[in-house]
Specification:
Number of strands: 25
Largest sheet: 8 strands, parallel
Number of helices: 21
Distance between the termini: 58 Å
CATH class of the largest domain: Alpha Beta
Shape: globular
CATH superfamily of the largest domain: Metal-dependent hydrolases
Strand content: 15-25%
CATH topology of the largest domain: TIM Barrel
Number of domains: 3
CATH architecture of the largest domain: Alpha-Beta Barrel
Strand order of the largest sheet: 8-15-16-18-19-20-21-22
Structural class: alpha/beta
Length: 558
């Protein structure tokens, strides 16, 4: 015999048997944005987190009902975004800047010398005076600085100042003497010693030549390196970075990251690329790619290679001579067959390959080598291989990114930092394939957004701003530099979230705030989709959360 249950009672029974969406954390009253897997922008008012992962996003009332007895964070109406991911940075290099003379932003040689002098005076026990960040283009010198100029502020011990891009360095006479550098010293393959009219070294070393002096610098201690890593992680958290592709690590750095992960000290997720395919690669790769170590805080499944140098130091390899230096076509770091062999070795061990290429010749070499390697390892085409920077690419070569299934790992702030000299370097025709974000996006190539910090600021809002406006922070030039190549804000956010995660094979766990993914998110002081685009770079991060835990609090919300 069947028993009829009143409709109201039946409904109550159904509700009572539904699962409870209890969560450990409710982030409420927010102006939330996330992309979905398809890249479509979604809005929400509250976020539920449990066991470090997203349970749901939605309206305030719905999420509050599901929250249970979990902790509640009142977002006070601030904008909540997925944690931003820098697809290409240098973590230890960023940390090292806190221990060195920082020349970033100096607008004259005298200003840089003043900073070096002050740093040397306050570091009297340092055997070497080390610094980084100078840019002779910003100084409007029309030339590189000299050892004699550096001697004027540091003469009692060796001094070594890396250029902002890390592809040239400036030494004083004491460093030249210690390294035995003379007129007879030959340029190494892939490097150049700057010389005067008589052939004497002037004090600047480009790309591979940097090792002539760099190899003489005493290595940092473990304590100094630990302090540098902590400083870098703190800085990243303060600007809203919850993940980074670390573009080139050695065995010692890999072990340091692994130790920090074991000790619960990593506050950002590191996708580390092994630097080269030499001994460190052999040691790190002996057990195969490392994926999702320490609750997804460390992955090592990629290799970083170099094709050429940088544009600012005229080390980027060009198909034709530089427009402002007719005797110089830049520097290739390896022969084509050597590049192919390195790529193939990485493929043979199952590793994704990420190759630094800035000049059009450097990019073509890499494209040719990927094509050659795929003949031996056709399955490697699915590894989401990348060209890092893809800065000046022949217009004819851009479609090959699609044919070879390559990701363009690009840094928007490079365009706005380089616009004061880029066209001088390459001329009006080659510039058409330079910093060409719209061209890549139009053909369906994914762009993984990054900064190349400490070459540029680690602040991802600088990158979002550059991507959208193609202007400096003063709004120059009016309308933007080659504005047809600009991104929309949604495209820019995707480059620094979903597609940065995709480029690291992490889109199933990172990059958006969809249910089941890690609850990596930030609260910021403005709605970047509605704010004046001229001020996007000035966005302030109020809070940064990784796996549902606060790693930075700027006291912007309760």
């Amino acid at each position: 015999m069947s028993i009829k249950v009143p409709h109201a009672l039946a409904l109550a029974m159904i509700v009572a048997t539904q699962p409870v969406w209890a969560a450990e954390l409710l982030v409420d009253h927010v102006n939330g944005y996330t992309l979905d897997t398809a890249g479509k922008l979604q809005r929400f008012e509250a976020l539920l987190v449990d066991d470090g992962k997203v349970v749901a996003t939605g309206k305030h009332a719905d999420m509050a009902k599901r929250a249970g007895d979990g902790k509640v964070v009142d977002g006070k109406g601030h904008t909540l975004l997925p944690g931003l991911i820098d697809a290409h940075g240098h973590v230890m290099g960023l940390g090292a800047m806190s221990l060195q003379a920082d020349l970033t932003g100096t607008t004259s040689l005298d200003a840089a010398l003043g900073k070096i002098k002050s740093f040397a005076a306050s570091h009297t026990n340092d055997r070497w005076i080390i610094g980084r960040g100078w840019n002779q283009v910003m100084w409007k010198l029309g030339r590189f600085p000299t050892a004699k100029e550096l001697d004027a502020v540091v003469a009692d011990r060796p001094a070594w100042m890396e250029r902002i891009d890390g592809h040239a360095a400036w030494a004083n006479s004491a460093a030249l003497k210690l390294a035995g550098i003379t007129k007879a010293t030959r340029d190494p393959v892939g490097g150049r010693i700057e010389r005067d009219a008589e052939g004497n070294p002037t004090g600047v070393f480009v790309d591979a030549a940097m090792e002539l002096i760099g190899s003489k610098i005493p290595p940092a201690t473990d304590a100094q390196l630990d302090a540098a890593l902590v400083a870098a992680l703190d800085m990243m958290a303060s600007v809203g970075l919850t993940g980074v592709g670390d573009a080139g690590v050695d065995l010692a750095t890999f072990k340091r990251y692994q130790r920090f992960a074991d000790e619960g000290k990593l506050t950002a997720r590191i996708n580390a690329m092994i630097g080269g395919t030499g001994e460190d690669f052999d040691a790190i790769s002996k057990d195969g790619p490392l994926v999702g170590y320490g609750h997804d805080f460390l992955s090592v499944r990629s290799v970083k290679l170099y094709a050429d140098g940088a544009l600012g130091s005229r080390g980027a390899a060009m198909l034709m001579p530089y427009s402002d230096d007719a005797k110089n076509s830049g520097l290739l770091f390896s022969k084509p067959d050597e590049m192919t062999a390195m790529i193939s070795k990485a493929f043979g061990h199952g590793y994704q390959v990420c190759v630094h290429a800035i000049g059009d010749k450097g990019n073509r070499e890499v494209l040719d080598s990927f094509a050659a390697s795929y003949k031996t390892y056709p399955e490697a085409k699915a590894l989401r291989n990348r060209i890092e920077h893809a800065q000046v690419v022949s217009v004819d070569d851009i479609p090959r990114f699609v044919d070879l299934n390559l990701i363009a790992s690009m840094q928007p702030t490079h365009a706005t930092s380089d616009m004061n000299m880029a066209e001088d370097r390459v001329g009006p025709e080659r510039i058409k394939g330079a910093y060409a974000w719209r061209t890549f996006l139009k053909q369906g190539t994914r762009i993984a957004g990054g900064s190349d910090f400490p070459v540029e600021s680690p602040n991802p809002f600088f990158g979002l701003y550059s991507a959208v406006t193609r202007q400096d922070h003063e709004g120059h030039p009016p309308g933007g530099w080659y504005p047809k190549q600009a991104m929309t804000m949604t495209e820019a956010l995707r480059a620094f979230t979903l597609d940065a995660a995709y480029a690291a094979h992490q889109e199933d766990t990172l990059g958006t705030l969809e249910p089941g993914k890690w609850a990596d998110f930030i609260l910021v002081d403005r709605d970047i989709f509605k704010a004046d685009s001229a001020k996007i770079w000035d966005t302030r991060v109020l809070q940064t959360w990784v796996a549902g835990k606060s790693v930075y609090d700027g006291k912007g919300a309760d």
